[in-house]
Amino acid sequence: MEWVEIIGILAGFFTTIGAVPQIVKAYHSKSVGDVSVWMFFAILAGVILWTIYGLIQKDWPIIITNGISMLLNGTMIYFYYKFTEKSFTRKKR
Amino acid sequence: MEWVEIIGILAGFFTTIGAVPQIVKAYHSKSVGDVSVWMFFAILAGVILWTIYGLIQKDWPIIITNGISMLLNGTMIYFYYKFTEKSFTRKKR
């Protein structure tokens, strides 16, 4: 395996798992007030398009890395609304 | 220009500007307590590696999109410490 391939795999790894630290923090703190959900919508739109791009090109590394990113960014959007709703219902009581 | 190229450009656009909504929110709210800085470090590591990958491959779209992402994610990391420090000094007074 050449150097450039290793750099590509490492690069793909870091950009794929990028959302994980924010997911973990939101899950533990249940507080997302400072988080911009639009960031995750923008990235989700991007990785959905990259997945389609990969499918058309039959490029498996692009399909897999962006497919995982889709799941992770989708999870963070779900957490955003779940913990925003929770703090909203708490205020109503 | 073929369909697949348009999809690739759009995908690159969304993933490149992904950090912008969070940067704008942090700049206006000056509050970053719920934000995970490790997310931006992970993505920064990834886009630095993608930029190196692009330089080796002489692939200008990869160099440009990830170069911009480097600046944006670097900006968010700067904002994170700037607004975290500020709220820290306010507590100390």
Automatic annotation (TrEMBL), chains A, B:
Membrane disposition: Multi-pass membrane protein
Keywords: Membrane, Transmembrane, Transmembrane helix
Principal location: membrane
Name this protein carries in UniProt: SemiSWEET transporter
Taxonomic path: Bacteria, Pseudomonadati, Bacteroidota, Flavobacteriia, Flavobacteriales
InterPro entries: PQ-loop_rpt (IPR006603), SemiSWEET (IPR047662)
Gene3D superfamilies: 1.20.1280.290
Transmembrane intervals: 6-24, 36-56, 62-81
Location of the protein in the cell: Membrane
UniProt entry tagged with the keyword Glycosyltransferase: no
